[in-house]
Amino acid sequence: MSTFLNLLVYGLADGAILALAALGFVLIYKATSVINFAQGEFLLVGAYMFYTAFVVLGLPLVAAVLVGVVVATLIGVLVERFILRPMIGEDPISIIMVTIGLSMLLKALVQMFYGTSPKSQPAILPRSSVEFLGATVPLNRLLVILIAAVVLTAFTIFFRRSRHGIAMRAVADDQQAAMTMGISVRRIFALAWVLAAVSALIAGVLLADISAVDQNLAGFGLMVFPVVILGGLDSVPGTIVGGLIIGLLTQFVSGYQDPGLATVVPYVVLVLILLVRPYGLFGETRIERV
Amino acid sequence: MSNVTATGIYHRTYASELRLRSTRAEYVRLGLMVVLLLVLPFVLDNYWLSIVNTILIAVIGAVGLNILVGYTGQISLGQGGFMAVGAYSSAILAERMGMPVPVAIVLAVLLTAAIGTFFGLPGLRLKGLYLAIATLASQQIIEFVIRRWGWLTEDRGYITLDRLSIFGWTLPRESFEQSWYWILMLLALLAVLAARNLFRTGLGRSFMAVRDQDIAAEAIGVNLTTAKLTAFAVSSGFVGLAGALTAHYTETVTWEAFTLNVSITYLAMIIVGGLGSIAGAVYGAIFMSLLPVLIRTVADVVGPAAPWLSNQLPAIQNAVFGLVIILFLIIEPRGLNRLWERMKEYVRYWPFRY
After folding, report:
1. Mean pLDDT of chain A, nearest integer
2. C-alpha B326, offset from chain centre
3. Domain boundaries along the sequence of chain A
4. In this complex, do A264 and B140 lie within 8 Å of one another by their Cβ atoms?
5. Lesser CB count within 10 Å: N end or C end of chain B?
6. How much is the CA Rg of chain A, to the nearest whole Å?
7. Residues in chain B where the model's pLDDT stays below 50
8. Who wins on pLDDT, A113 or B9?
9. Distance separating alpha carbons of residues A177 and A171, to the nearest angstrom
C-alpha cells in the first residue's frame, strides 16, 4: 500500500510536469500548426537560465524566476521571428526539421556554456517528507503537483477570460476570420511561442529541482509526444489528462515491473492510440477536403 | 531526339524524354564521374578512403530515405531503427548462424523491408505530423529492443564480426579500405541506379502521386495501401542494406550507432541535398559526412591556439549541424541539388539572367 501511494505521488508529480511541458507544445500547435521538437530543449534552457540567475549570479528566488521568464520570453520571440516565420507555408517535413535543427542548436549551446556534468543547485522546495496514510511521501513532489496545478489553472483562465487568450483561440480556430476581426496573427504567433517557452521554463525548473540540473532534462521533452497524442494534439485539457496518465503509467511500470521498460511503454501507448483513435481523447477530428 | 536551346531543353519524342541523360554536358559529366570513381582509391590514403567508404554507405541510406520522404511524402524518423534491424540481423545471421555474408545481407535486407512495412502500417491512416510521431515511436521501440533484449548480443551489449569474407575469399588486411571501396562503390552505384530507374516506372510514379495529393492519386486509380506500403518496404530495404554494410564494414554492432540522432542526421542529409531527388540524396550524404571531418580538421589546425576548442568539439559539431539544417531550410529549402541546377542555368543562359 505504501509503495502504491509513493508511486502515485511520484507519478502525479511527473505527470504534472509533463502536462506543463505538453501545454507549451499544444499552444504552439494550436496557434501556428507547428510541431515543436525543441520543447525538451526549452525545458533545458529554462532550467539552466534559472540556475545561472539563482546560483551563478546569486539572485534571490523571485528575481531569478523573473530573469528566467524574461529570457524565456526573449527566446520565444526570437525563435518565432527568425526561424519559424520564414517557414510559413512550407511542407510539414521542413517545419519539423527546422525545429529539430533548433533543438540540436539549443542543446549544443547549453553544452558549450555549461559542460556536460550535472550542476548542483540548492533545493528550492523542501526536501522533508510527510507521513500520509502510513506512507512516507516526499513533500517536494506534493508541492510540484500543487504548483503545476496552479499554473495550469492560471493558463486555463487566461484562455477563457483574457482578451489575448480569446484572440489566441480565435486564431487557432480560423486565421483569416481572426484577421478580419482585427487580431494581429503575427503577434498571436509570437505570444504562443512566448507562452510555450515560459511554461517550459516552469516545467524545467520544477523538474530540475526534483532531479538534477543536467543535459538529461532535454530527454524529458520526447515524452511530450505520447502525452499530446493521448490527450489530443490541439486540446489543453487533454495535456493535463494525458500528462497524468503517462506520468502514472511510467511510475507504476517502473515501480512494479522494470525501470527500463517504463521508458518504452509510453511509446507503445502512443502507437496504440494512433492506430485506434489518432485524434486522441480530446482532440478535434479533422475532416480532410481536397 | 532533344534540342538544347537558349531557352531550355526540349524533347521531341517520348523516348528522348524518358532517357536519363539528354545533353552532351551530362555525358561529359558522367565520364568525369566514372574517371573520378576509378582513380579515387589510388590517390587517397587509408584515412580519406575510410571517409569515402562511410560516405558510400550513407549514400545508400540517404537514397533509401529519400524514396520514402522525398518521393512518397511519408515522413520517417525511424531510419536509425531500421538500420539497426539490418545491422543486427545480418551480423547474427553471418556470425552466429554461420551463413555466407552475401546471403546474410540479402536476408537482412528482406527482413528490414518486412519490419519497415509493419511500422509503415500506421501510415495508412496517418500523415504528416502524426506519421512523424508514429515513426518516432517505432525508433524508440526498436532502440529499446536492441538495448534490452540480451539474446541479440548474447548479453554482451555488442556483436563483433570477423573481417569480411565472401564465399571463402577473405579481404586482405593490407588493402582493407581499397577492397571495401570497390564493394561499396558497386553497391552504392546499383542503389542509385535502381532508385533512379524506380521513378521511371509506374510504381515510382504512383509514389509521387501519393506525395503530391493522396486523395487525387486515389481518384486516378492509384491503390494507396499498396503504394504506401511498397514505398515503406523499398525504402527500408535500402536502409537495411546500409545498416548491414555498416555492421560488416565497422565489424562491430552496438546500439549507440543507431540512435535517434542517426535518424536526424539522415533526414538532414536529404533536406540539405534536396528532397525528392536522387542526386540530392547523394550530395547531402557527401556534405553531411564531410561536415564533421571538416570541423575536426579546422579544430586541429587552430587547436594549439585555442585548446578549449578540442574539448568543445562534440558540442560545436552539434551546433553546426543544427545551424546548417536551419539555414538550409530558410535560405534554400530545395537543397544543394537546386543550387547546382541554378548554377547550371546561370551558365546556360549567360549573359541573360533567365
Report:
1. 86
2. 20
3. 2-221
4. yes
5. C
6. 19
7. none
8. A113
9. 8
